[in-house]
Amino acid sequence: MVCSAVAIIGFLLLIATTNPNAQYAGLFLAAAGGYPLIPIVVSWGTNNSGGSLKKGVAAAIIVSVGNAGGILSSFIYPATDKPRYIKGHAICMSWNVMVFVLAGIMWFHLGRANAKKDARNTARGHDWTAEEKKPFEDDGDDVDWFRYTL
């Protein structure tokens, strides 16, 4: 969420001002906030997918959707919009707003899911042993000992 906020501020500077110094700062903020999101989103998505199959599919979907950005950029940053590229910057800022909001929703949702799992584990009265975990090891994030990463 912090990275998205930094990128949003950067895109706002790029859109709102014609001052070259402010736009240059906005460019650095947009890049500094946007580029770290790629490994963060991939790792967060895979860490919150239990089991090797779910992790592999999650990583593939996240990377595939992320790579679509290269295709979209040729349409949202046409040469006719130069030199300010307001439409492209506004779309990128909108995506960062969406990431910010969805990350907040997921943080809340996963925190509640962890709390429910903790309550069920506490009600059990003892920790899960390796023998007890064995039959459920392929159930991924559906088991009570799996913790979502916040």
Please provide a written account of the structure.
It is a single chain. The longest helix has 39 residues, at 86-124. This protein has a domain at 2-103. α3 (37-47) packs antiparallel against α4 (52-76). The chain has helices spanning 2-16, 20-34, 37-47, 52-76, 86-124, 130-133. It has 150 residues and is an all-alpha fold. The model has no long low-confidence stretch (mean pLDDT 92).
What does this entry show, briefly?
The chain is mainly alpha-helical.
SSE diagram, text form:
Elements: H1 2-16, H2 20-34, H3 37-47, H4 52-76, H5 86-124, H6 130-133
Report the span from N to C terminus.
11 Å
- Largest β sheet strand count, sense and barrel closure: none
Helix content: over 70%
- What's the Cα radius of gyration? 20 Å
Helix and strand string, N-terminal first? HHHHHH
Total of helices: 6
Taken as a percent bin, the fraction of beta residues is under 5%
Shape: elongated
Keywords:
6 helices, mainly alpha, elongated
